[in-house]
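Good morning,

Both structures are done.
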Amino acid sequence: MRNDTAPISRQALLEEANLLIKNHEDFIHGIEATDVEQKGDVLVFRGEFFLDEDGLPTRKTTAVFNMFKHLAHVLSAKYHLE
C-alpha cells in the first residue's frame, strides 16, 4: 500500500464513491458501486453492468465501465482499504 493514502472502511468508501457517481456530469440512473477491493495500489469497484438479454454490453455498460474507471483513478489516489 502507498503511504500517502488514508485508510478507509469499505462501507465509507462505497458511500463516497456513490456520492461521486451521483454528482458526476455523466451520471446515468441505476449506476451504483456495490463492492470494492484493493488490488495493489488500485481500488477496483464493482456493480451492475447492464447487459442485454443476450448477455451483450449496452450503452449503459460502457458508461458503468467508464465511471468505475474514474472512481479507481480518483479514489485510489486518496485512500486504501483498512
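Second structure follows.
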Amino acid sequence: MKLILASTSPYRRELLGRLRLPFDVVRPEVDETPAPGETPAALALRLARAKAQAVSAAHPDAWVIGSDQVADLDGTPLGKSGHREAAIEQLLSMSARAVMFRTAVSVRRGEVAFDSVDATRVRFRPLSREEVERYVDAEQPFDCAGSFKSEGFGIALFDAIETQDPTALIGLPMIATARMLRAAGYPLP
C-alpha cells in the first residue's frame, strides 16, 4: 500500500520515519487562513483534513497523512511567526502562561478517513526579552507554531508540558497516527 505524507515539514517527515514504513512526501496546496470565529482546534482539524484531501485527490490509491498544528492562547490561534520580530513578540506573549497546542492528523484514502486532534498544554516560565531574543537568534523557529522547537533548545523555555503524546508537540501525534495506520491495514507493532 502506498503511503504519502501531505507535508514538506522536516519535523513530520522525521516523526513518520520512526514507523519504518516507506512513504513519499507531497506538498499540499491548501489555504491556511483561519475562518472567522474558528477555534484553534477546529482550524487544526480542518487544515489536516484539507491537506490529506488535496493530496488524496491526486493519489486516490494511496493512504495520505495530513497534519496541522495551531497554538491556542486563550482561544486565539497563533500560527507560524515567519520572521524574527514576530517570533519574539509571540514568545513574549506566552511568558508565564499556559498555552494549548492543538495538533490534528487525518489519514485518508478516497472517502475513508480517520481523524484525531491532540491537545498538549505547555506552561511557559517567565521569559525576559533578552532570553527570548537569544533563543530566537540561536534556533530561528520561524516555521513552527508558537515559535519554538521543543525537540531543541526551546525546551529551556518551559516549566512543564502536559500531554498524552509527546510527539504531537513536534508536529505529528504518532500514537494516533500509528493507531489510524493500523486501522488502515498497515502491519505495525
